[in-house]
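Q: I have two molecules that I believe assemble together. Could you output structure tokens for the complex as a whole instead of separate predictions?
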Amino acid sequence: METIKEEKGRFDEWKLSARVFFANRTAVAGLVIFLLFVGDAIIVEVAPGLVGVQYPDSVVPPLFSITHPECVNQAPEPPSFDHPFGTTEYGVPGEGCLDVLQLVMKAIRIDLAISLFVVLVGAAVGTVIGVVSAYIGRLLDEAMMRITDVFFSVPFLILALALSFVLGRTVLNMAYALIIIWWPLYARYGRSLTLSTKEATYIEAAKAAGSGRLKIMFKHIFPNVVPPVLVQISLDVGTVVGIFATLAFIGVIPNALVPELGALANIGLNLAPLGYWWTVIVPGGTITLFSLAVNLMGDGLRDVIDPRRRS
Amino acid sequence: MIAAYGLSKFFPIRGALRSTISLKAVDDVGLKIQNEQVVGLVGESGSGKSTVGRCLIRLLNPTDGEILFDIPDSELVEYERARADVETKRVDAIADRFSLLRASSAELQSLRRLANIVFQDPYSSLNPRMRLADIISEPMLSTRFCSRAEAAIRSRELLREVGLPEFFEDRYPHELSGGQRQRVAIARAISTNPKLLILDEPTSALDVSVQAQILNLLRGLQEKHGISMLLITHNIAVVAYLAEYVYVMYAGKIMEWGEKQKVLRDPQHPYTKALMSSVPVIGETMTRTILRGDPPNLVNPPIACRFHPRCPVAFDVCGWTAEEVAEDLEYLLGGKYYGTFGDGVRVTTEGERTLTIQGTADAQRIRELAGLENQEVRSLKSVQAIDVSDGATVLRLYEPVEPEMYPTPDGRQVKCLLFRPEVSAPAADS
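A: Yes, here they are, computed for all two components at once.
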């Protein structure tokens, strides 16, 4: 009886997964940074006043230059005790007195939300389409894959630009545009995973056991397809932040009041050559840090989801 | 228990211009397994053994043929009589009741309960994301053999029955060795108390030391539960240990079948002889019959006897085509007999039965060549007549004869023209 108890303890799913993940130090570092980003987003969402953030949805309050005449014609200040990441300006050069740290904190919330939205919706839609088309096969599969080919044939940034212009240049429409670009990736990934799973002998064994097509799809195919897709999602969250920032940086959103990391870097674009380097480095570095953290975390997750790497 | 007649499985070739092109993996196979009997199916890789096994339990749908399952012996005798007498009505009546190919989906569901399969590779036949208890329960739940709670209890019993500790139920396949995994696969296969078990190379992916354990387990289960088994393997020793009857397959056809002792100790078909001569025996010098060439391409298999191009004793009507003879002749004329005939000779074929040697009208010397070489180059045996016309030598070949299963006096069946009853078998070297 004693051994049986031990066995039960050993195979507690979550404990085992956690142990595998926490054995990987870089993954833990990635997780910590990612959680800092998430924490920041939650605070700015729930209680912005706690960290002194005002107007979380906007770079500056309405009629900023009128209500804050002291900011006009001020050069951006370098990092100091009051402004750890210095200040930047908004609009006409010389209006520097926006705290970069606060702007970045606002931006993280928006970037994180958009990125999660894009990746989760894209992955859900794409994976289901990929799995079903691969499992049913034949004409459906052929048709779906030619459709994804259409999306792959256009460079994704160009396609994102074109779609944003067609849909209208707002933050939400940009997110939709990215979803439209992102789902074929997951459709292909889900399809390839399904095709390899479908050929496994245990699928044939399930047929011999009398399991129907639906049961096989839900009990055998999906459980083998979803974990790798989850890892891909965790990796893509970082990528999408980068792409979204790129689009914002080149000015796809006309409303420059949206606090977004790419748009912030754009504000600093004209200032950096004058020596105000922090106005670009800080938002840019934040993007890099986020992508890096998410990638490290994703690598750790990959170990967790593969049952063979556990023992 | 189960009987198959004229079973064929052709796989269409993807991308072929004409849809008629197909790979004839299994062609006109007849097979019978009695109650509680273990039948071996041996043959080399690609001979269609596994396809037969999968067709028998409808994992693949046969292209043609009939499979009768769970049929009483008396009905089976009656069916065979009716089939031989071409009593279509009677045949249909029996087939309606027992045919797997006419089975409704409800009947197929009960087939899933009564028959199961153990696969070769225990590493890919178990879903890596399922616990052993769930793996073993799957057939019981899918076929509504019992309730979920009963299945959980029974899966523990089954683990014990196949020699694994009960607490393995919460383990995942990757935590097990190959032999342990195969035990789990066996437990899954017998979970619904099947009457028929297809064993598709159950030991060939395992270490030799573990193979014996698995074989003993299978034998024990067979004796305890009286399960009929079809043992598909290329390992003669495995068949010798477990089976009562042996079927020998080559290139999609059954070549010979009969009682194990007879087929293994005293093979009759030239292919079985070659196969058995490849089995090493401790303490003896092997006298192997080495076959030339490769197993045939099953898209365009050799006509008549599929073994004739490699058969060391093939003779005139075994199925030689003009093309096969032409290939051998060109090889001889361009090589060994280059000095005799020189550069000018060229072999062309006209249809299946006639070929012409352009550039020589010396029928006598061609005749001598054929006479000298037909021991080594068996295709030359099929030359019926050699004439001269229009300054070229014309060779005409014998009409091939399709071999059937011929019974031998000691009660086995051999698909070789050497055993054709009406013709006195030509001596192998005449």
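A: One point stands out. Chain B has a mean pLDDT of 88.
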